[in-house]
Amino acid sequence: MEINISEAEWEVMRVVWSNKETTSKFVIDTLGEEKSWTPSTIKTLLSRLVEKGFLETRKQGNKFLYSANCVEDECLDILTQNFLERICERRTHVIVKNIIETDNLSKSNIDEIIELLKEKRKTAAEVITCKCLKGQCSCAAKHG
């Protein structure tokens, strides 16, 4: 599955994910001033997300309630996979290191990552094989 949404649409999704259902007014109140977006811009973003299938609407009285059709963590997993498919498998560790070095992680986050790495190490290959096309990466692997 491809997640093809803009950064602005992602911001709207974060508001919707944080609430079971929400109105356009709530999204406008949450993002409008902070992002300098007009109400019509936010309503356009909501409409696009409905068209793309990320949101669904339900009419309640004179307003529409928006809810997510996808779980945030599942979308993050798909985005991560889509990103990793675009880089050489031999460079994945660079991304992981960068996230660890630059992101704020709690001690429990770090403990969870350490345990995951210990499990991963049990079945890890000694060397990762590059699957890039010849001339597509700089990992120094020999490409037939």
Automatic annotation (TrEMBL):
Keyword Transcription regulation tagged: yes
InterPro entries: BlaI_family, Cu_transp_CopY/TcrY, WH-like_DNA-bd_sf, WH_DNA-bd_sf
GO function term, MF aspect, one: DNA binding
Keywords: DNA-binding, Transcription, Transcription regulation
Entry's family note: Belongs to the BlaI transcriptional regulatory family.
Gene3D superfamilies in the record: Penicillinase repressor domain, Winged helix-like DNA-binding domain superfamily/Winged helix DNA-binding domain
Record GO biological process: negative regulation of DNA-templated transcription
Protein name per its UniProtKB record: Copper transport repressor, CopY/TcrY family
Organism name: Gemella haemolysans ATCC 10379
Tagged with keyword Transmembrane helix: no
